[in-house]
Structures
1.
Amino acid sequence: MLPESIVEELLSLAHVHAISAVAGISISNFDRDFGADGTFRQITILGNRRYVSGYALDFQLKASTRCQVEAESIVYDLEVKAYNDLVNRQQTIGSTPIVLILKVLPYNRNEWLNASEDSLLLSGGCYWLYLQGEPSKNRSAVRIRIPRSQSLNPNSLSMLLRCVQNGILPC
């Protein structure tokens, strides 16, 4: 049996892959985790040919059952190392932008996935956040709030890549 943290990671990857597929956006995952888990790339159509446009957005992916879901936001304690990796990246001029994606899973593992002949239901939403600011001096975690309006779905992912293309992150 896989450790629970690996199952959470794999479910979050499946969720993000499904969203990018429906949005028509290329996704690639990194083999090693050096502060980013993958990249989204915009696909452009020229005539009857599709190609990668050159606009990219990296992502750091987290999954948790320990989030607080409030009326307006998702509250999550992000490891300080991950927080600092994200805010340091934003301060590097010319670097590929990066967003945090948080997969919020139900506390009960039996509710994570429901597979039947008719459907595949992956419970819990994904939310995105473009972190900015100064690195934290905290020792273990930084409490973040992700607006629930920043749900990751095909439309919001396409919007994020348009913002990258237009140079207006955060958008």
2.
Amino acid sequence: MVAVPPTPADMSISSLDREIANYDRLNMTAAPRYSDLLRERGERGGLKFNITLELIQKAARERRFLSYGEVALANGVEWQTAYRQIALHLGDLVSWSHKRGLPMISAIIVDKPNISSGAMEDSALRGFINAAKRLGAFEGGDERAFLKDEQKEVFRRLADWDTEAL
């Protein structure tokens, strides 16, 4: 008898982490289950992919930046809860969307004081660049210029993107 793996919804967060790490290590990130695992992990704690995707698309259409707090608010999650989970949620969302040929969609989410400029604080930029390196999207160079290029791509490509198709 062949063992059937548990559905991602039935897995603990540590099991999700382990299986995602195995897919990453084996370079099997194109597998459909990998996307399902990322989506499930990214939605733990109340932050939902579809809500965040729709918020990002709306902002892209308006050519404006979002704050992390806006992401939490749109998801109906208090900031005191969301701040612990938002980096993982956005990281999984970026990995998930990258597999679909999209730019790094979290590029337009910045700290509230930088909402007019789109700049990222050093710690946020470090996380963004680390995600880009992990995905093979950034191989070195000017990190802030890379961020600006990704922001332009989000504004250009996501304005007409069909979130319903995902």
3.
Amino acid sequence: MKYPIIDLHCDLLEYLEIDPSRTVFDEDSACSFDQLRLGLVQIQVMAIFSPTINGSTKKGEKQVEIFQGITKEAFEPLGKVRKEVKKTSVIASIENGSVFCEEKETWETGKERLDRFFSKVGKLFSISLTWNTENRFGGGTYCDVGLKEDGKKLLDWMAKKNVAVDVSHACDRLIEEIFSYVEEKKYRIPVIATHSNFRSVWDQPRNLPDR
């Protein structure tokens, strides 16, 4: 295969966390082990996700456990697989900072949990500060809130750990202020959008302005 296929986002961890009877081979997840191999995916980024709700960190803890189990499983498919991809490697990401820090917790408590998550999954590819709503870090897709103080502290942590910033669920104001903060601090962490498009292609708040 000339070029490796690396997929930057899937929701398999939450899919498994919602219903313990589900498995990594369930095709209705749209990212089962078989489907990844058939799609020639060599590296899959798996999101640890929760909306900003009471108990979001419990969902995060459980998905970290599931990820640990996935990395220990043999990626042997049940169905027919193209021979070019003998193994799909996985790496974790965090979609919404609320998965490691509740709204009423201190930053120090959240940071301790984030450090534990980082240690357990081995490496984080990226973190998105928000999801669709406002949280302690900044404004999500459907609001107009910039980078908060805890958001700056999170970016400081990410710079030390060399973790990319994902803006796929950030509002325009938050995106601008993330770029400004990263530039001001001269951080070398990438700012990326793992699963959004240009707003000029599809006019939807999740998508990004051309600039």
4.
Amino acid sequence: KLQLSAADLFKDQSLLLDEVTRSQSNLQLTLERERSQLAEIYSHVREVAGSIDSTLTGHVNALEARAERALKNLEKKMIRAEKKKYAIQSAQIEKLKLGLFPRNTLQERVENILPYYARYGQAFIDMLYKHSPALGKQFGVLIKDS
């Protein structure tokens, strides 16, 4: 339903919800264009102020940093407000992460293999062996066919 990839499953829950919100929202949630316009304005102001007195460039830089911080904070608030509209997706992500990472750790460190063996038999062990990356340092995600 959320159109997530296997790699998405390993991302932080908050970051994942941000990405889902950004992809499904049809509103402008970033202020990149406005930030670049702000940088252009402050560049011009810096030139004007610097031509009058070179010590004013530091003050202009401080004003620019303050304005940039304010835009970043506004962007965070915009995303937070939009996230509230996606409560169902948030609950789905939370449930998914809880199932895949119980107690915020890897599933195989919490769950026992015996219920899976009892349910699927030797075929489950064979499937694990077949898809195991041996000694590689990578994760594998096994998806049950419906």
